[in-house]
Write a structure and sequence with these properties.
five-stranded antiparallel sheet, 2 domains, globular, about 5% helix, three-stranded antiparallel sheet, 1 helix, 8 strands, OB fold (Dihydrolipoamide Acetyltransferase, E2P)
């Protein structure tokens, strides 16, 4: 059984290209400097349409998490940790913490991005504890 693949289009392609290269990227509004993730066609701060991409550190903190004890299919072996990560640069993203079964995790713990193959063509950003 295969994992669910994310939609990749012209808007999100730079994000996925970065993941393939082992780099986490976020959109930046050229007008106001706001950083955002996930990709959109306009800035969520000022509605500007002039956006580019920047590489970020991939470091952040756990904002929230839950432990999934029953995977949605055989492609997702449980338990696994789904988390909201506040990146040091500002944006919040949903991902998973791959080096923990949830035991001992706390909101505010430091994490760093890593990349795991999700398919033959997609590297998925995941997080590890620092």
């Amino acid at each position: 059984m295969e994992k669910i693949l994310p939609p990749i289009n012209a808007i999100s392609q730079p994000y996925w290209d970065g993941c393939q290269q082992g780099v986490l990227r976020v959109q930046r509004c050229i007008t106001c400097g706001h950083l955002q993730l996930y990709p959109r066609i306009f800035c969520t701060q000022c509605a500007g349409e002039d956006l580019d991409w920047i590489d970020v550190s991939g470091k952040g903190t756990i904002a929230s998490y839950t432990v999934v004890t029953r995977g949605i299919s055989k492609a997702y072996s449980a338990p696994y940790v789904v988390s909201l990560i506040d990146l040091d640069e500002g944006p919040r993203m949903m991902s998973s913490i791959v080096d923990s079964d949830g035991t001992g995790l706390e909101v505010g713990m430091s994490v760093e991005v890593a990349f795991e193959p999700w398919s033959e063509t997609i590297m998925m950003p995941v997080f590890k504890l620092l």
